[in-house]
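Tutorial handout. Part one gives the primary structure; part two gives the three-dimensional structure as tokens.
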Amino acid sequence: MIKEKGILFVLSGPSGVGKGTVRKELFERKNELKYSISMTTRDKRPGEQEGVDYFYRTRDEFEHLIKQNKLLEYAKYVNNYYGTPKEYVEKMIEAGHDVFLEIEVQGALQVKENFPGGVFIFLLPPSLDELRSRIVNRGTESEKVVLNRLNAAREEIELMDAYDYVVVNDDIDRAVTKVQSIIQSEHLKRERVAKQYKKLLEVAER
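Part two.
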């Protein structure tokens, strides 16, 4: 029997759509998933651990990795770099683990360019009115920021065609169940199963 490789699953969607909530609930149900650990140049905070919360690197080290194309995606926030290390994801997948990455839309598009074999899931709000309500209910955003986020959401929804699946987050429980179904169905895809059987046949013929 040949061990099946893992798959990279990327969950993305507009700010306020509930990506973090869906990811948290999914991990409570499906423990064998590995969460993709990000790399950052920001200082380690009290209680944080290397390789658990983040991979911590200096600015020079991070920029060297960018030049070597060793990040699936990266961005700069508040003068610090954040990114997804390619080597960690590849090691987990080779070991047979599914890796789950929750990320903003622009980052997901970078990942798709660098790791086209991933499975890309777009989390969609039931409506822009509902998305606005969710952002407003956070109570942390000004009216101007809310409008900017909604405009950005409209633009990001237009990028939906770059994804493999779309899940409407009208109900957390339903949305998570749909994501679980996607994970299961991807492992049953003919092309993935066929690769494993071809390897078994090659071994049998020796």
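Part three, for discussion. The domain at 37-96 is CATH 3.30.63.10 (Guanylate Kinase phosphate binding domain). The chain has two domains: 1-33+98-206, 37-96.
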